[in-house]
């Protein structure tokens, strides 16, 4: 699988393209060398044959047919290896001289007079079969003359050169492919380091930075630029967070005074209409105070990190307490409230924070599930993870909003008309992060008009050795919030 992913990388594809260009260049170069070498050797053979023909023509002009026969016989006698090939016959193929007994079958096939044929027994050749090249022309007096050379060694040399070119091309392609793979693998490793770090940063680990090798190459420069960008983003985020936290902190006290004054006024007002107006003002003040308190709680959770008061907690007992608290609220809406709580599921954590997280999720499920709907609370052990699930049959969360709902003040479009401030699941996310947990979202009834929502919280289960077991964290999750 890793090999397939390696082959799909852009760096390997670029290396493959370079390999094709390089191999094509090598092929063209070798083909040109072969063409020039083979052409030169063939031309040299033809020139040798032409020179012998010129010598025989001179002998024929000076000594006639008898002189031609004599010189052919002398040359055959001086050439024991039979590199030169001669055949002189009458028009009716009667042999007069030469080291062949008869004409090749294709002796009349070429208009230029040049032929290539095989020396064998059918031609009166006494040695092993060999390749030959010759030229045929007519001599005055009705004679026919063949003058050629044994080119078997030349042909074998060409074959050796062709084989060398083929092997050279194969080795070139193999080395280029190997080099491209190694180069892309080295590049992919560095890119994967950047990708892995980026994914962890996107999952909330904003303190991480992309490592560098100290070589000051392109990747190091890219990593430095990304790290500087992350530093700037974190600085701006912290600034915005501090401003919002300070505003929440500074406004909470005057809002509390305002709320108390309104409540005092409510007691003294005799007019029913005025009492109703003041009552609504008190409710609005309570809502504002709840929002500011939630902001401050989230800020405290995010700054305290993993320094919460961690103790051994029975998750099933904690969920039972929360269910008893909210079951009456569910009965008021005539909802079916189910519980499937496995016993003996324990975790290490802050009991108060975990209770607040569980309460928020159950409260959300009751709030966004219509009357006569179904709510199911589940506690189970899944391998090394303690799992807490809340399933409802409510309005659900659209897929395109599931990656945004943990943001502060974000509310799903369908829920904007309902009471809430969009901070509930931000608080849940902060509590889960402190406990090294993971939140997953999915539709309870996929494909239906009201798909509902299943919120799954996976926390490290207690291992029995007073050590925390880290929950499995996939790179991509279906996280969302309903607020």
Automatic annotation (TrEMBL):
It comes from the Bacteria. The keyword Signal does not apply. This is histidine kinase. InterPro entries: HAMP_dom (IPR003660), HATPase_C_sf (IPR036890), HATPase_dom (IPR003594), His_kinase_dom (IPR005467), HisK_dim/P_dom (IPR003661), HisK_dim/P_sf (IPR036097), Sig_transdc_His_kin-like_C (IPR004358), TCS_sensor_his_kinase (IPR050428). CDD domains: HAMP (cd06225), HATPase (cd00075), HisKA (cd00082). The chain crosses the membrane at residues 12-35, 164-183. It is an enzyme of class 2 (transferase). GO terms for cellular component: plasma membrane. One of its GO terms (molecular function) is phosphorelay sensor kinase activity.
């Amino acid at each position: 699988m890793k090999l397939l992913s390696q082959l799909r990388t852009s760096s390997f594809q670029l290396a493959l393209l370079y390999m094709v260009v390089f191999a094509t260049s090598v092929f063209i170069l070798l083909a040109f060398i072969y063409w020039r070498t083979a052409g030169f050797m063939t031309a040299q053979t033809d020139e040798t044959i032409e020179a012998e023909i010129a010598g025989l023509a001179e002998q024929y002009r000076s000594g006639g047919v008898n002189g031609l026969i004599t010189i052919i016989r002398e040359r055959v006698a001086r050439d024991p290896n039979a590199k030169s090939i001669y055949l002189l016959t009458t028009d009716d193929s009667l042999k007069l001289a030469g080291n062949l007994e008869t004409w090749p079958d294709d002796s009349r096939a070429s208009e230029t007079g040049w032929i290539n044929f095989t020396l064998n027994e059918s031609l009166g050749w006494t040695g092993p079969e060999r390749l030959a090249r010759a030229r045929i022309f007519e001599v005055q007096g009705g004679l026919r003359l063949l003058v050629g050379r044994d080119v078997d060694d030349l042909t074998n040399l060409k074959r050796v050169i062709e084989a060398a070119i083929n092997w050279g091309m194969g080795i070139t392609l193999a080395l280029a492919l190997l080099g491209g793979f190694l180069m892309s693998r080295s590049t992919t490793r560095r890119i994967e380091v950047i990708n892995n770090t980026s994914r962890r940063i996107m999952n909330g680990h904003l303190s991480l930075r992309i490592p560098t090798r100290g070589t000051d190459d392109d990747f190091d420069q890219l990593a430095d630029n990304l790290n500087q960008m992350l530093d700037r983003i974190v600085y701006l985020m912290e600034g915005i967070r501090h401003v919002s936290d300070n505003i929440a902190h500074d406004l909470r006290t005057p809002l509390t005074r305002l709320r108390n004054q309104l409540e005092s006024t409510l007691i003294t007002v005799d007019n029913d209409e005025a009492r109703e107006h003041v009552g609504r003002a008190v409710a609005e003040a309570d809502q504002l105070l709840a929002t500011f308190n939630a902001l401050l709680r989230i800020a405290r959770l995010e700054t305290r990190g993993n320094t919460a008061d961690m103790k051994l907690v029975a998750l099933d007992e904690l969920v039972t307490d929360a269910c008893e608290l909210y079951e009456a609220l569910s009965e008021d809406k005539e909802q079916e409230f189910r519980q499937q709580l496995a016993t003996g599921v324990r975790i290490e954590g802050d009991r108060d924070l975990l209770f607040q997280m569980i309460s928020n999720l159950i409260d959300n499920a009751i709030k966004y599930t219509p009357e006569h709907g179904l709510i199911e609370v589940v506690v189970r052990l899944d391998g090394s993870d303690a799992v807490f699930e809340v399933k409802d049959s409510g309005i659900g969360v659209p897929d395109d909003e599931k990656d945004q709902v943990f943001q502060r003040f974000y509310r799903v479009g369908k829920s904007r008309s309902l009471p809430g401030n969009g901070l509930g699941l931000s608080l849940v996310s902060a509590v889960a992060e402190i406990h090294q947990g993971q939140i997953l979202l999915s539709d309870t009834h996929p494909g239906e008009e009201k798909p509902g929502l299943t919120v799954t919280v996976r926390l490290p289960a207690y291992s029995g050795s007073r050590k925390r077991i880290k929950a499995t964290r996939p790179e991509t999750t279906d996280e969302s919030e309903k607020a």
